[in-house]
Design brief:
- The complex is a heterodimer.
- Chain A is α+β, with helices and mostly antiparallel strands.
- Chain A has 27 helices and 23 strands.
- Chain A has 4 domains: about 5-75, no CATH class; about 155-350, no CATH class; about 365-540 and about 765-895, no CATH class; about 560-745, no CATH class.
- By secondary structure, chain B is an alpha+beta fold.
- Chain B has a 3-stranded antiparallel beta sheet.
- The two termini of chain B are about 15 Å apart.
- The chains are: A alpha+beta, B alpha+beta.
- At the A-B interface, α2, α4, α13 and α27 of A face α1, α3, α4 and α5 of B.
Chain lengths: ~900, ~110
């Protein structure tokens, strides 16, 4: 008898990786050949003929070896060694974990995709939550922060449109402080700049003038020296200063003998009495992003002037046993007494108490919550995407699970093995999420505009990192176990019918379809929100601001000291500075103003001549001191009358004023405002000589307020910005401009130098930040859904390859196959889009206050969003559809 | 002789049907297919064993070495529950296909 074993061993090589398996194959084939030879001999063939006939069976030994290798190489993954039930639990877990690591190495692309998706989705969400938590949720870093309030002077019936609140006048504050019993401390603060001289080059510092009690209110003492005493509000005793830690270290070299040292501020000597602790800044809605360098006392003499001049931010700490409501009641009563006591001066208004944290973060809270919502949507899309990947993996491993089930593994055991097997991937995903969270938080903190409060408090602390890690583990385990639960149930029923492929079963693909539909629905909400923000941002950018931003430079200047006690001296400084600057080549116009557009200002109660005192009180008016030429320098259009000239600013000239359109409409709706007279406090009547176009005083999103410009000497002490219009790039002229200003007075330092474009950028910085971040989230979501529909359609085509082959064999056209796949995709995308549209409409009001210039339910935008999403879905399906249409029917029918 | 493509596409079906009654080894399987098809269908070693190994990989059949007294050991293949379900589905699909062929192409069956 022929030794077929040796024959085959000599001719067939490398049949299987495992020598034992190779020996088995040789054995089996040898037995078959021996049976063939026996049969031939029994039929009467000669031994030679029988041998030749049998040999012919394996004539092409190379092809045979190749076919067997191919069939044998993709044998099922080796199952983990059976665990002795009597062995310890940890031994079993260790074995399964080791198996899990091997699985990780065997499928690097799958593992990397899951880890990257988890890192992006969970990490970005954790970073956004860090921001929201630190800015909006964490209490202020002071003891008993819930007792801290801001006290505005307000009246919701006012026509100011600015949330019905305003800063407080000095006399009103003094009366509140004297009469109220609800507060432990009530302080008035005023942000201002001061000029530091005598320490090298003159420098402009950020200062806060405050009444006594600010630091006691915040329960923070000085790290060196002491804080202000009440008697230091008195004139003559108020030339003392408290320094910030940063200023003390950076400018004074952390001088240990700083106490008692004299520093010259605004030309006057101040004695340093204290240094505040490192990192301390007093919270104020007007000091966000502008840390104070030095605190100085607010003198009573200054406070007592101008009951109608609202300029102080009042902060208070309620007594322990006093509620906000009770304090509000008391302050309302006090306010009403003051209105009755001073009818000629005060507008009807009351004190409005608002918790300090709400005032600080209220402006940004909706935007930050929306960003958190957007990042959460991205997280959900990522989770659904990851779940989809695990579903496919589970379906492909049904064969393996059927074998395990056949060997006696119960469903719980199968699911547990699946979960532990994926644990290393989950842990790596969690680690990557934590890393992304840390990096993204730092990045967000670095790029957030400084006008967002409490940026310096943003950190990623251990609790958020722990939650990030836990969330990653939960997401990954649920995403991996849920499909395993379903797949294991079907493993014994469907088995390995076609190794996961074959005729499409609606049950098998339903899970993935649901996941894809959900992703499309969520992504539409995300994309629509981003589109709303983007359109609002561009609307604001494109709007007529009322002034010209091209080639306009602004410089902060604050002449101070004994030379500038009189307002005329301040006016003269700016007039001379403007005159000198205008001689520079390239400069077309220069002038000065007290407040730039978009950066707030001072306001006063206007009194309209000729009206009954009870009706003659005009609205709250933004008052601006200017020098002649300001409107030309800033590019503000003169609509009627004339601008202010140099001759108008003399003490002997008729006091005149130029007002804006809004003020003209409000105060004289039925008459021409030119020639009319109004009072802005101080007993001065101003004649309206011109009307200019509106600008925005408090931000692009707020409507213009009534505004009055005057160059009368009475107001010139408020001048602080030089505005320079140039024919070319004004920034290049800055050094030359500085030199000209120094020639007027070298002790007047130049503070911030910005173009008007920079001022506009700062005004929209928060919206820009939110828009770009929201757009990033939306693009991420759109990319993920495109990938998801591509993967699903590829899976769909793979599942139905045989069916497509039969259709093509029976005469279906390739376009028909293309339409079949695209129609399938379009159904899912359409359902997801429809669900998303409902969510968009229901959530429209949430975003209403962030939308500018149009309705959040604008039908064109909603429809455009839906169309874009459908287009993306179709784009993602094109390649699998094209592949399906290109299938060879014979290949398709052969496929199993 | 039956078209090579049709035979290739039905190999698994034939093998499942043959071992449905009882477990069989490879030579037995090929012999029965040839005899029951009247010589029309014949599987050589080069096509039979790769098919058997693929089907075993997918869990449609399960192989087991059996050693009987006085005989060399042989590897017998039996139908798994998954294989039974696959066989039933194959039968349905082919019946449907043949019915369609009858209607369209005027196929006559015995």
């Amino acid at each position: 008898m022929t030794d077929w074993k040796s024959h085959l061993r000599d001719r067939l090589s490398a049949l299987a990786a495992d020598p034992a398996r190779e020996a088995d194959i040789i054995d089996e084939l040898a037995q078959h050949l021996a049976d063939l030879e026996d049969a031939a001999l029994r039929r009467g063939a000669t031994p030679e003929a029988a041998y030749a006939a049998t040999l012919a069976e394996v004539a092409d030994d190379r092809a045979l070896a190749r076919a067997i290798r191919r069939a044998d190489m993709s044998r099922p993954r080796p199952m983990p060694p059976p665990v002795d039930p009597h062995a310890s639990l940890f031994v079993g877990l260790a074995l399964e974990l080791r198996h899990g690591f091997r699985q990780l190495v065997r499928a690097p692309a799958f593992a990397a995709t899951v880890i990257v998706l988890m890192a992006l989705g969970i990490g970005l969400s954790a970073a956004t939550f860090s921001v929201v938590r630190n800015v909006l949720l964490e209490p202020l870093p002071f003891r008993s922060p819930e007792q801290l309030t801001v006290v505005w002077w307000g009246n919701k019936a006012w026509t100011t449109d600015f949330e019905g609140s305003a800063p407080v006048s000095g006399p009103n504050f003094l009366d509140w402080r004297a009469q109220s019993r609800s507060f432990e401390h009530l302080v008035a603060t005023s942000p201002s700049g001061v000029n530091l001289t005598g320490l090298g080059q003159a420098e402009r510092l950020i200062a806060t003038a405050t009444t006594a009690g600010l630091f006691e209110m915040l329960r923070t003492g000085a790290s060196l020296g002491r804080t202000f005493r009440p008697d230091e509000e008195q004139p003559g005793r108020n030339k003392v200063a408290i320094l910030s830690d940063a200023f003390w270290r950076n400018r004074l070299g952390a001088d240990p003998h700083v106490l008692g040292r004299s520093v010259t501020l605004n030309g006057e000597p101040f004695t340093v009495i204290g240094v505040m602790p490192r990192g301390f800044q007093h919270p104020s809605p007007w000091a966000i992003g502008q840390p104070t360098d030095v605190w100085i006392p607010l003198s009573l003499q200054v406070l007592r002037a101008g009951r109608g001049n609202n300029r102080y931010v009042v902060l208070g700490r309620l007594k322990r046993d006093v509620t906000l409501a009770a304090a509000q009641t008391e302050m309302t009563a006090i306010s009403e007494r003051l209105v009755r006591a001073y009818p000629a001066v005060d507008n009807p208004g009351v004190a409005l108490l608002i918790p300090l944290r709400k005032v600080l973060v209220g402006r940004v809270s909706l935007r930050l919550w929306m960003l958190l919502g957007a990042s959460t949507l991205v997280l959900l899309v990522v989770c659904l995407n990851v779940a989809g990947l695990f579903v496919v993996r589970a379906l492909r491993r049904q064969g393996e699970m059927a074998i395990r089930a056949g060997l006696g593994a119960g469903r719980g055991r199968l699911v547990r093995q699946f979960a532990i097997e994926h644990l290393p991937m989950c842990v790596l995903g969690g680690g990557a999420s934590v890393a992304v969270a840390v990096v993204a938080t730092r990045a967000l903190r670095a790029i957030m505009p400084p006008s967002i409060p409490r940026i310096e408090e943003i950190t990623v602390d251990a609790s958020i990192l722990a939650c990030t890690l836990a969330l990653s583990l939960v997401v990954a385990l649920v995403a991996s176990v849920a499909p395993a639960l379903t797949a294991s149930r079907r493993a014994l029923v469907d088995g390995l019918r076609h190794g996961g492929r074959g005729p499409a079963s609606s049950r098998r693909a339903t899970g993935r379809r649901v996941l894809v539909v959900a992703q499309f629905a969520l992504t539409l909400v995300l994309a629509h929100g981003a589109a709303l923000m983007l359109r609002s941002y561009w609307t604001l950018r494109a709007m007529d601001k009322g002034f010209d931003t091209g080639h306009v430079l602004t410089l902060t200047l604050r002449p101070s000291g004994p030379r500038y006690k009189q307002p005329e001296a301040v006016g003269a400084f700016f007039e001379e500075a403007a005159r000198r600057v205008e001689t520079l080549p390239g400069v077309t116009r220069a002038a000065a103003i007290s407040r730039l557009p978009l950066e707030g200002g001072n306001n006063s109660t206007a009194i309209i001549e000729g009206r009954d005192p009870s009706q003659g009180r005009g609205p709250l008016v933004e008052t601006r001191a200017i020098t002649s030429g300001y409107f030309d320098a800033m590019g503000i259009r003169l609509l009627s009358g004339r601008a202010l000239g140099a001759l108008d600013g003399t003490p002997d000239s008729l006091p005149v004023v130029v007002i804006n359109q809004t003020m003209a409409r409000r105060c004289w709706p039925d008459a021409d405002a030119l020639g009319k007279r109004l009072g802005l406090g101080g007993g001065l009547w101003l004649t309206v000589v011109g009307i200019v176009a509106d600008t925005r005083q408090w931000g692009l999103e707020y409507p213009p307020l009534p505004e009055a410009y005057s160059n009368h000497p009475a107001y010139l002490s408020n001048l602080q910005f030089l505005v320079v219009r140039a024919a070319t790039d004004p920034v290049a002229l800055a050094p030359a401009i500085r030199r000209e200003i120094a020639k007027v007075d070298k002790d007047v330092p130049v503070g911030r130098v910005r173009t008007m474009a920079d001022v506009v950028d700062r005004a929209v910085a928060e919206r820009q930040f939110g828009t770009w971040l929201g757009s990033l989230f939306a693009i991420t979501g759109l990319s993920l859904v495109m990938a998801a529909i591509y993967a699903l359609m590829s899976f769909f085509v793979a599942q139905r390859t045989s069916e497509i082959g039969v259709r093509l064999a029976f005469g279906a056209t390739r376009n028909g196959v293309l339409r079949l796949v695209l129609a399938n995709a379009l159904t899912l995308v359409g359902i997801g889009t429809a669900i998303g549209l409902v969510a968009v409409v229901l959530s429209a009001n949430l975003a209403a206050s962030l939308v500018y210039g149009f309705s959040p339910n604008d039908p064109v935008m909603v429809a455009a969003g839906a169309v874009c999403l459908i287009a993306i879905g179709l784009a993602g399906s094109l390649v699998p559809a094209w592949r399906a249409a290109r299938l060879d029917p014979a290949d398709a029918l052969r496929a199993e | 002789m039956a078209n090579h493509e049709i035979k290739k596409g039905s190999a698994a079906f034939l093998i499942l049907a043959v071992i449905e009654e009882r477990p069989r080894h490879g030579y037995d399987i090929s012999r029965l297919i040839e005899s029951r098809s009247g010589g029309t269908l014949r599987f050589h070693v080069a096509s039979l064993y790769p098919t058997l190994y693929r089907m075993e990989k997918r869990g449609l059949i399960a192989g087991r070495w059996v050693e009987k007294a006085g005989q060399r050991r042989r590897r017998y293949y039996r139908l798994t529950p998954a294989g039974k379900a696959a066989l039933a589905e194959h039968r349905t699909n082919w019946e449907t296909f043949i019915l369609a062929l009858k209607r369209v192409a005027g196929l006559r069956t015995a």
